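pinned: reference chain
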Amino acid sequence: MADTTNFSVRMDSDIKKQCELLYGELGMTLTTAINVFLRQSLRVGGLPFEVRLEQPNKETIAAMLEAERIVHDPNAKHYSDVEEALRELKR
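pinned: its C-alpha cells
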C-alpha cells in the first residue's frame, strides 16, 4: 500500500454535503473524488478543466444588443411561432 497522509480542507458545509451525495451516486467517497482530481491534475500538469471567465466576443455582444433593440422596437416584425418565421424567410 502506498504511503498516505492526511490533510484538512475548509469548505462550505452545504457544498460538502452536496458533493458527498453526488460522489456517493457515482460509487465513491469525497476522499476518493479528491484523489481522482489530484491524480488527474498531475497527469495533465494543471487543473483538469478550463478555468476562465465566459466573455462573449464582439459579434455575440452585437447580436445581443440587436436582439434587445428588436424586443423593445414596436415597429419590429414579430412572429407567433417558428414556422411562421421560417415561412417568412423562404419568401
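why pinned: The helical segments are 13-25, 30-44, 58-72, 82-90. The chain is about 55% helix and 0% strand.
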